[in-house]
Amino acid sequence: MINVVLYEPEIPQNTGNIMRTCVATNSRLHLIEPMGFSIDEKHLKRSGMDYIQYLNVKQYKNWDEFKSLNKGKYVFITRYGNKPPSECNFSKIDDEIYIIFGKESTGIPKEILKNNFDDCYRLPMVSYARSLNLSNCVAIVVYEALRQLDYLDLYRCESIKGENYLLED
Q1: φ/ψ (deg, to 5) at 148
Q2: Residue among 84, 86, 87 at smallest CA distance from 143
Q3: The model's pTM
């Protein structure tokens, strides 16, 4: 299972979109406080749509509590990384995978990143762009990890209308 970790998220709509991505990809979501919103906020639920009931989510009071309860491979997504996520060989990780994203305004603290520099990755973009939207970043990186893991047990065809929907008259 892939674990998406949001370090002190601030914008409920972003977290709601990430919740939806986590449900669709069978990923577990970890939320590290303080957050800029309440978990039951209506914007959060609206973004998560009707999938929210399937969400696997855990909350933590701070980074230290998160670290003490979650062992595995930590992968940090930050504008300060020097390599793209495609260079992280997710298929060779034999442990729980935790993909960690920082808060929208300031990212992951430098103290955390400095101690984990070899595990810091950056989404490539033009030099004058600081970052992408957090929920977009999560989707891009989670799907890169899933691609490398051959999409685990995710459905590869439409399951509600059927895999031959486009071929039907």
Answers
A1: -65, -30
A2: 86
A3: 0.94
> Among residues 108, 79, 77, which one has the least CA distance to residue 90?
77
Task: Please state, in angstroms and rounded to a whole number, the distance separating the CA atoms of residues 26 and 56.
Answer: 8
- The model's pLDDT over 25-61, given as tens digits with 9 standing for 90+, comes to 999 999 999 999 887 766 666 655 667 788 999 999 9
Q: Is the peptide bond before 9 cis (omega within 30 degrees of 0)?
A: no
96 φ, ψ (degrees, to nearest 5):
-60, 140
Q: Is the dihedral of CA 127, 133, 137, 143 positive or negative?
A: negative
CA distance 62 to 78: 19
Report the C-alpha gap between 82 and 64 in whole angstroms. Answer: 25
